[in-house]
Design a protein that fits this description.
The protein has 388 residues and is α/β, with parallel strands linked by helices. The longest helix is centred in the C-terminal third of the chain and has 20 residues. The structure holds nicotinamide-adenine-dinucleotide. Nicotinamide-adenine-dinucleotide binds next to α1. Nicotinamide-adenine-dinucleotide (NAD) binds next to α1.
Length: 388
């Protein structure tokens, strides 16, 4: 059976995420493997059309990867009927205008998180896609991480008994840019440019917590700007106006309490850049990006507090590694394949723009909680996404 070709307008491919994860490790990797496999055994190859602001960068990128189509004219790319899909990994504040344009042009849209800077915009986008009848999706890559897939397996298998709490630790030191270059873009640290760790990370925590453990019913958070001044890509000093750390408490349906620290101002003393510890009556687990280890109730030590003596147990060594029991692929690529199947053969894809708006709503709750110093019940702020 011959492969069909599907044009994908890709906006923001000169950026970190757009280039590495979406263009190279997803779209080009899918093509290198012969395309997306469809349910009838057929294949769909993806034809990327690179869109961006810099002709120079696009031309170089296209040349480097032997991509025929690129343009700085988004409208022209959207006008071409051979491109049914629009993808967006631009800076967050540029997203809504371009995605709206794509929806108006009748394109199916697949976009990075957060889907917008405000709930109002995120909900409007979801509604616009729904009323235009286009397929729509948001990136929820963390769900496809090997560590979290193993954690999900444990939850589904009833390993934990009654789940009591989740503690997440995310972050690493992002250099200020003065004596060592910052490893993240400067707009991330400017609120006026759509930056801020709550807007960046709470949408991730929203779908991770709600997919694995239960709906978030209340949010309490403290957002902080620990480093008030940073140096940008051009060597200029700027005021860091956005939060660079957030300390969050999420109350989930069923009484599970989740606490997640997110910070660009911590030095890593963990095995992975993100780790979640889940404690349940029957057992506990610590899951990272790739690995997951467990301790069952039956193998739980009984420490006795005595600061006068050295630790009585090798606590870290008492955990057991959860085996892979399968092959894990790049999560971004897996989600791309699902979206393409959703577009071409209506395969299920629960990660829609309503889910994206939910993530923005949780972020907004976090920001509100921090600004007003109070606990925010989710039912108290705005329309539920289920009504979309
Ligand atoms: N899923 C994830 O794990 C994940 C991780 C990081 C970032 N993201 C999201 O991806 C998006 C891009 O983040 P990034 O880290 O790749 O950023 P980046 O700064 O590396 O790239 C931004 C892209 O947007 C383009 N752009 C369009 N309009 C712009 C404007 N007015 N000013 C500056 N750039 C503009 C740039 O040319 C570039 O291609 C963000 O919305 C971010 O929240 C997602």
């Amino acid at each position: 059976m011959s492969a069909r070709t599907v044009g994908v307008v890709m906006n923001g491919v000169t950026g970190r995420m757009g280039y590495r994860q979406h263009l190279v490790r997803s779209v080009l990797a899918i093509n290198a493997e012969g395309g997306v496999t469809l349910s009838d055994g057929g294949r769909a190859l993806l034809k990327p059309v690179l869109v961006g602001r810099s002709e120079l960068k696009l031309r170089e990128l296209a040349k480097q990867h032997e991509i025929a189509d690129w343009t700085t004219d988004l409208s022209a790319a959207l006008a071409d009927p051979s491109n049914p899909i629009y993808f967006d990994a631009q800076v967050t504040h540029a997203r809504v205008a371009s995605v709206t344009k794509a929806i108006e042009a009748g394109k199916h849209v697949y976009i990075e998180k957060p889907t917008a800077e405000t709930v109002e915009d995120a909900v409007s986008l979801a509604k616009a896609a729904k009323s235009a009848g286009v397929k729509n999706g948001v990136v929820q890559d963390k769900l496809f991480l090997p560590g979290l897939l193993k954690l999900k397996r444990l939850v589904d298998g009833g390993f934990f008994g009654r789940i009591l709490s989740v503690r997440g630790e995310f972050g690493y030191w992002v250099f200020e840019g003065d004596w060592q270059e910052a490893q993240r873009p400067s707009w991330n640290y400017r609120a006026e440019d759509g930056g801020g760790i709550i807007l960046d990370m709470f949408p991730h925590w929203a779908y991770v917590l709600e997919t694995l453990f239960g709906r978030i019913e209340a949010v309490t958070a403290k957002a902080v700007t620990h480093i008030p001044e940073r140096v940008d890509e051009t060597g200029g000093t700027y005021a860091a106006t956005a939060d660079d750390a957030a300390y969050g408490l999420f109350e989930l349906a069923g009484g599970v309490i989740a606490q997640i620290n997110s910070s660009w101002c911590v030095r890593v003393n963990r095995d992975e850049l993100v780790e979640f510890q889940v404690d349940g009556t029957e057992g506990s687990a610590v899951a990272g990006l790739r690995n997951c280890r467990v301790q069952h109730r039956s193998a739980t030590p009984k420490p006795v507090w005595n600061p006068d003596l050295p630790a009585s147990e090798p606590f870290r060594r008492q955990w057991q590694e959860v085996p892979d029991n399968g092959e894990f692929h790049n999560g971004f690529k897996t989600q791309w394949e699902l979206f393409v199947r959703h577009v071409l053969e209506d395969a299920p894809f629960p990660y829609d723009l309503a889910a994206g708006a939910r993530g923005v709503r949780i972020a907004e709750a976090g920001l509100l909680s921090s600004a007003e110093g109070r606990r925010i019940e989710m039912s108290s702020i705005g329309t539920e996404e289920g009504e979309l």
